[in-house]
Amino acid sequence: MDTVSSAPLILITGGSRGVGAATARLAAAQGYDVAISYVSNEAAALGVVADVKALGRRALAVRADSADPDQVAQLFAAIDQTFGRIDVLVNNAAVLGLQSRFEDLDFPRMQRIFAINAIGPMLCAQQAVKRMSFRHNGKGGSVINISSGAARLGSPNEYVDYAASKGALETFTIGLSKEVAREGIRVNCIRPGHIYTDMHASGGEPGRVDRVKDSIPMGRGGQPEEVARAVLWLAGAEASFITGTFLDVTGGK
């Protein structure tokens, strides 16, 4: 086991793009070693690794589908071997289907959305808790779930299944935060609003943020870095008495 570095380790699922990549870069700038998981875009993941290393931190990218328990176990085994610790888990990986009315959604899509957006974070959190919890001789830690303003708004006519999966993630946040609060683990949740990322293209509308920005009280979409700053604040000592909390990064929507 390589334990040369005493720097805290942050794992960001879905860390090759968007909010995940921005969080990885900011975490490195703040002194974290960084592990990311990704599913398909190895080049983008390696680009994030290079950025982290350029900031003087250690980095690891692991191909892992967070909806697959075996791949999640392998992801954490790789972190054990490379870093020998985990201090922060950011459950960021998520998928979106094409915009659709609810009655037209097919069953495989619903299964996939929930597997990645709700069950995936639960699988990752299980592994993290087994390493962080005082009950397991851990030193504590922080879990941050990335939900969405959609969990409150419901995303009618667009992504009701996505919104429902994020609602499940929020309820999981509440329950887990209470279960592990005395074991040194804080569990919080961030709800990004309309953020300029590639995810909107997955829903079939790359320009969606610009279309809806007039509905945002601040009159603009958000940048991935603005979400990353909220993630790192919740992860760190400044939020030491905060658990089971939801932080909206939505421009007031």
TrEMBL record:
Keyword Cell division in record: no
Keywords attached to this entry: Oxidoreductase
GO terms assigned for molecular function: oxidoreductase activity, acting on CH-OH group of donors
Coiled-coil residues: none
SUPFAM superfamilies with a match to the protein in the record: NAD(P)-binding Rossmann-fold domains (SSF51735)
UniProt xrefs under InterPro entries: NAD(P)-bd_dom_sf (IPR036291), SDR_fam (IPR002347)
Gene3D superfamilies linked to this entry: NAD(P)-binding Rossmann-like Domain
Assigned protein family: Belongs to the short-chain dehydrogenases/reductases (SDR) family.
Protein's UniProt name: NAD(P)-dependent oxidoreductase
Organism of provenance: Pseudomonas cedrina subsp. cedrina
